[in-house]
Amino acid sequence: MTPSTQDGWRVGVLFSRSGTTGVTETEHYNGTILAIDEINAAGGIHGRPIIPVCRDPKSDNDAYRKLARQMLSEDELDVIFGCSMSASRKTVLPVVERQNGLLFYPSMYEGFEYCENLIYTGATPNQLCLPLADYLLQTYGSRIAFVGSDYIYPRESNRIMRDLIEARGGETVAEHYLPLGVSATEEMALIREIEQIRPDAVFSTLVGTSAQAFYTLYDAAGIDRSVCPIASLTMAEGEIARIGPEKCSGHILAASYFQTLNTAVNRAFVAAYKARFGGAAVTSVWSEPAYNQVHLFARALERVGTMDTHRIGQEVLGLDFEAPGGRIHIDPETRHTWLTPRIGVARPDGLFDVVWESGAPVRPDPYLATTRFEEPSLREWA
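Predicted structure:
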């Protein structure tokens, strides 16, 4: 018998709990561990527990590659829940393919990818960028400034958002990219430019500590957030708590999940998360997709009965799950997830008021093959 069937179902958990993206990836980690705890408390899969083998790559891409190889080869694992930034996913992907592993990836990302060895449970650009572009133009104005970290996700996401803004009659008034971990001096230069050009909104794809510093400096500069907010796809409840909620109220997030969703499933999720990680802990679009994908994996494993990555990967396709953010569905054609897009505005307490949501889950379109940039996406207000 293999170690998986003797002792339990051993899986890899590969998220950074330190470094540039330590805050958000710790939330990925927490969502993963909470789901594993729940499944094991309910009796595991075929009477055996899921056993997480956890590694911390510390936000270093070389470490992601090394640890993924170790997990799949030396630790003899078949399934990994892991990666957050697109750079880390791109680094790990060849290793997973070579070892015929299965990677569950929980982050929103720039799209334009398909892999038989991946299941994508985060949002694609059509699910977030389209409604956000409409919301900014309708609510704040047509002059948008773009800032981002200098790697593939921000550049591709900004390209898509820029095309959307301009197709809808808007204007790009600035576009800048900064290295991860950039100094405050360089970020202050961006703040000064924003003060001078006075855009109607700033679309930010800065990530990690760079984003946290930018929001802090934005507040210190006294820029009126009711007139010129920062909009993003990533600045959620956990990082806002780290920055200070009073510094972030009025800023905008497009996401498939917010802690404030008032459903029985979400209330139970939030309560369980706080019971496990402390009363001050907040759920977010980082923890929720990570939680969801473990439950999807467990359902597939229950049906397959063996740690066969191809069969598990096939069994996940088409699965539905009543997630904290609403019903989700793994699209068999794209291996991505049907999700409910939403737009939230940050409150003084660090949570979000949902100001718009789609009436139903939206099909993922990672290659933007069927998306029409000229058509508005906002159909009704929440």
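Summary: The first strand starts at residue 9 and ends at 14.
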